[in-house]
């Protein structure tokens, strides 16, 4: 471990537990690390790794049922772990501050932006109103907000997500703290916005010499932005050290697994090009979708999008929030009648189907949702969920049905014992497998996947992506795959459409779009993807060349 | 914005008209004649002239639709018909009975707000968990107590046992103490419930965590960040509370023998005085609709999120 | 919406955040045993038995007084004392259970059947039918509940059944709103769209997903409405619009006892406490159902 200077933060043997009903579960087991002045330390882990609990314990903001069991937290040499709430108040905001996870809900909706930035100045020392106002405007300008005089008087709902996060950063740096805890500061933001926010945090901490404890699930972000990295799993540190060194030669098996599961832009084996002879499975022609807004106006969510998906291939639709990607696939899946244009599947125009034929059409096209928590009925067993589509069509015997359900459950890699369980007893990955089984039990030709892996941890995501690839090979499925994550798209798609504000700005074979993007937007998207410093990319690609 | 206001007012007028129609159907068009027969019976002691007057006033000799139009037009002019029992215009009865009820209701409501805010804040900042739990269970208890029984128990305890409040010839304000206390309980209960829920919910919001990370103390948080966000939604139950207030007034005035709309209503039902009851029903519906309209229109001024929606 | 609706909304919110305890050891089980809930069930079961078989609980006649035994304070012979006609108060309360409970059950039945039917129709069909039904519910809600029940009573006349119908009519709007909002909530859930997506017809989706997922809320609401109906019926009884004397209906008991406040406090205190206990129990049970639902 580095020996220079006195660390800003020194955590020793930290244990944190949560009470649930009458039992207590320890979620952080003996975590020790330190953060040097001006250093960025990334705390990386999947859900349940204890990374957020560790960060919350440092700033003394564990939820009401959380408790710091033992260990010390030294801030500038003083152990604050047993300080009273009143004493902690003096250092919060002033010595250690927070950039929160979810900018959308982290500002008080009924107070102006100015009042919320001014609050931190007023809480720590007397400052007269005029000075405070001037300082607030300076701060807002400093974090790159245009027109700060106007922003001061605005309410949070009038700002975009990226602007809100800038305001929160302004609050965090207002008193030039020694340490900033950034708790997944960009995971709720689009990738291009994420990049700008991360750049801002980088610039500010260089300027102020502030140390940053950076909590993230994204190994790519950690690789690009941190000096040192701490990998957590199940509340224990798996490994820590210089970021570049850890990533180049990970010691623990878990880190190696994480690294191999992170989807990457540079892949070992590009998918073979789609033969031109393949018949089209889905043809989207000049699709336009308008929505009515109050006041008689309309909003064009999808504006003249056209593409063709060849049978047995994967077409990805990529875009940031509000790009119209979900609206497009809802038209393909027959949940929305397009305003104009056509979606042809086997020469049927989906938009023109009446309810009876639409129901028959559903045998061919199935949709898998992003959130496996919401798309399964909490009151049905896995068996009932997977069996239900079969009951909607021609009656088949109980035994035949049972056989089909068992076969498909096995096919998606689930044990048969899971059939009698309810969704809440399953993990996220298992649920998504159940959702895939439900989609496949009708033996559809086309499966539409709406961000189907983005709610999952990387290791689980990698398994589901492998399963999807396997199923495509075995069953000859055609996928329409919606994602915001270009790295995932690169890995599994043959062709891609890039959408921006409802318009298709790029489309074609994945290799072509990624290597020679025709639009500035696609180039910006690709450049914004974190993980350039992930060593595996180069290591593996050189490996594949040699 | 003006379109929204106009639409909202139009909707309120429509609901009010429908409420009038419903009350007319229930109270006048149904076998109400059976009640009239009682009054039109010469043995009841009304003179032939009076009977003719009543028949005319209610357009009894015409069809239901004409009666409806007739009554509707009268209501619009503030003419609510005659009280069969007292033999005076209903509007006169209302004029004498409205002020005491308004006074009682206003005081009761004020006391309820104070009580509810006290309970809600105590349940969130009281020092001990058992105390917080105790305070939190108060609203459930309050809501389970029959108002009339509470009134009697208060008389029993404070007048008969402790002899703190006199029931025989009390002063004008002394006579209001127990009724106001009675009335405040059923109003405070839902108000405190919704406040407690909102405070609990708002406290888990990320922006409260952010404010805490700024170094804010609990009282500062409660006052500056939680209170306003928690109080706003209580406005939406203003109409419901008005209904409770009116029901509470009927019972309270009956038990304490006070004059007012409540007492008037109680007598009207006992004597099957339909005109009086319909007038009370329509006026309360009007008050309910007005309160909800006022809340809807005031909300954008209190909640910045709604203020700029039309402009943005 | 009445204040009771607020109560149940609050209970549901509380239920959502309630942690699911993992009860493994015996001491933990004893500590977390819901004594309040058990007591609530016990109270309701007892009162129900009073209604079904009152003679098991008291030997005294609820209607025939004992000469010379008027206005006796609670004692071993008459645990709750006697009233002005020498009737045993406990016997009157026990025999009165059937009037209060059956009235409340009838009232809730009216509200449940009519209200949920309206709400289900409005929430499932939507469009114009929904708009018309919900405006009708708005109109019902615009008339304060007590006035609405008084309006119905003034026409139907006084009596136990009429009072129950009047209270039931005021419960319709609440049930209709709840049912509609539940149906709309479940309808918007992704798993319902997924069910349509796998070829389900409207009827099948309604039966398999929408109804089962809306039901617990309705059951919880029914329990809380039961307590509320007991309050309303006793209020009507107290005002003299319910069962006629000498029926020992609880509200009427309190009204009768009121004349002897200074001399026989138990005549009002005891029946009132019973009402409070029953209503509290119904609310507590509703709360536990609401919690189990989430």
Can you walk through the features of this model?
- The complex is a heterotrimer of chains A (546), B (312) and C (294).
- In chain A, 37% of the residues lie in helices and 25% in strands.
- Chain A is an alpha/beta fold and 546 residues long.
- The model of chain A is unreliable at 537-546 (pLDDT under 50).
- Chain B has helices spanning 2-29, 33-40, 48-57, 64-76, 90-125, 129-143, 147-161, 174-203, 206-213, 218-231, 238-256, 261-270, 274-302, 304-307.
- Chain B is flat.
- In chain C, 73% of the residues lie in helices and 0% in strands.
- Chain C has helices spanning 3-17, 26-32, 35-52, 89-125, 127-142, 145-156, 160-187, 190-197, 202-239, 250-257, 266-293.
- Chains B and C meet through helix 1, helix 6, helix 7, helix 8 and helix 11 of B and helix 1, helix 5, helix 6, helix 9 and helix 10 of C.
Question: Which features characterize this protein?
Answer:
heterotrimer, A: 546 residues, alpha/beta, six-stranded mixed sheet, 20 helices, 20 strands, globular, B: 312 residues, mainly alpha, 77% helix
Number of helices of chain A: 20
Low-confidence segments of chain A: 537-546
The outline of chain B comes out as: flat
What oligomeric assembly is this protein in? heterotrimer
Principal-axes geometry of chain A comes out as globular
| Largest sheet, spatial ordering of strands of chain A | 6-7-8-3-9-10
Structural class of chain A: alpha/beta
The percent range for strand residues of chain B is: under 5%
**Residues in helix, % of chain B:** over 70%
Mean pLDDT of chain B: 81
Uncertain regions spanning at least 5 consecutive residues of chain B: none
- The whole-angstrom Rg of chain B is 24 Å
Distance between the termini of chain A: 36 Å
Largest interface: B-C, 65 and 55 residues
What letter string, H or E per element, gives the SSE order of chain B? HHHHHHHHHHHHHH
Describe the largest sheet of chain B: none
Q: Could you give the count of β-strands of chain B?
A: 0
How large is the count of helical segments of chain B?
14
Main sheet record of chain A: 6 strands, mixed
The gyration radius over C-alpha positions of chain A equals 26 Å
